[in-house]
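User: Before I run my own analysis I want an independent prediction to cross-check against. Here's the chain; please return only the structure tokens and, at the end, one sentence I can use as a sanity check.
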Amino acid sequence: MRIYLAHPYTGDEAKNRERALRAEEMMREATPQTVFYNPVGRMSDSAQFAAMSYADIMALCLAELARCDGVVFCGDWTRSAGCRLEAQVAQRLKLPRWYGAYAYVRTWRRVEDEAEHEEAFA
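Assistant: Structure tokens:
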């Protein structure tokens, strides 16, 4: 499974990068078998990212989003033009969406609990 992490970037880049990395870590602990694509947390600190235009960055991010199995919207994503665009694309692609890292983690904990319950009665 591959999950896209949508998080605002501009405004306070260092703080947003840190928050995106923390959200990814929390989700990775809940689902260690999952691959996460976190452009704010990982890509934003690269020389490649710094050299790209906003349009090129969004094109890359949307292409990666289309390769994912779901998306988690974190932070104050509704105020971010990029995150809102990602939300529109995710909706059109009919991708599962979680609103917040905690929502994602709660979902997978519930799935694990139900699986354990079913195994106990099998």
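Sanity check: Strands lie at 2-6, 35-37, 70-73, 97-99.
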